[in-house]
């Protein structure tokens, strides 16, 4: 690697390495637990749930597809496929605006809201049991500071992710 | 909701709600940044990268498909599609064992290792710039404790995720 014009990478030290792995694994594990609960309680996937939460919290309970995609950090094509499947199941509805180049609106249906209401109690219980019940006050504050530091300087998307109180 | 036989859900309080959203957004944002870097530096997707890292760290640089899938918390079918695509690009190779019911082995190829080496410096730089450079020593320790608390009591998968030092 020597002799390159680029400087030697600043490799992580052992502790940083360990924390990084824990960060990734903790997130992955939580997602797996949440996915299982959403599927069991309401037949929803995690992406289904994320879309429904974003829509349920939006003004007039609908969002432009572009705004929704950006808020999820998803490619437009991924959102399009996702919405198509959810539309077929009656969870969301799409309103195309031919005269509006900014694209279609996606809205949550009554059925979508019912699905969300059904999984919400189990969802918050999962998040509590595997995260917040395990953190004392100081750890909660520290986690808040650390995650906030990551987000610092980033333009927040218009859509923020999951409110665990869905009512 | 009253009148149900189930107790009222323990909704998150405002601070927990905020930390939870930050946790999710920080992870999503980091993943988006990492994805962009991997794509730009080596034409790899984040799943490509995760598979390559897991294989590169495994004994003999190969893993059973089942073990790899479990380590990623992926469905077997997802891994199968992913591996098929990576095999077509020469990044991994698959060795089927007909007499062994525990399934095929997946190994990293020299080309796969080269792709990993190529993206590694930019990867660690991205992780540093957006996470570790933003945390002081106390926040690092706190993040370590918080993520460790989430993982506590969980059977670790045989495959742990990304070493950011890939050499």
Automatic annotation (TrEMBL), chains A, B:
SUPFAM superfamilies: Winged helix' DNA-binding domain. It holds the Pfam family MarR_2. It comes from the Bacteria. PROSITE patterns: HTH_MARR_2. Signal peptide: none annotated. Residues 16-152 form the HTH marR-type domain. The keyword Ion transport does not apply. One of its GO terms (biological process) is response to stress. GO terms for molecular function: DNA binding; DNA-binding transcription factor activity. Keywords: DNA-binding. This is DNA-binding MarR family transcriptional regulator. It comes from Yimella lutea.
């Amino acid at each position: 690697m020597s002799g390159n014009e680029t400087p030697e990478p600043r490799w992580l030290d052992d502790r940083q390495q360990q924390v990084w792995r824990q960060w990734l694994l903790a997130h992955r594990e939580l997602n797996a637990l949440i996915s299982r609960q959403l599927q069991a309680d309401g037949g929803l996937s995690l992406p289904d749930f994320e879309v429904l939460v974003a829509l349920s919290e939006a003004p007039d309970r609908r969002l432009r597809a572009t705004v929704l995609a950006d808020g999820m950090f998803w490619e437009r094509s991924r959102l399009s496929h996702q919405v198509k499947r959810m539309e077929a199941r009656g969870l969301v509805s799409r309103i195309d605006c031919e005269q509006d180049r900014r694209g279609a609106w996606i809205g949550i249906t009554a059925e979508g809201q019912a699905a969300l209401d059904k999984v919400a109690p189990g969802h918050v219980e999962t998040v509590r049991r595997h995260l917040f019940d395990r953190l004392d006050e100081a750890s909660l504050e520290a986690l808040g500071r650390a995650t906030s530091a990551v987000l610092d300087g980033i333009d927040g998307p218009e859509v923020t992710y999951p409110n665990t109180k869905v009512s």
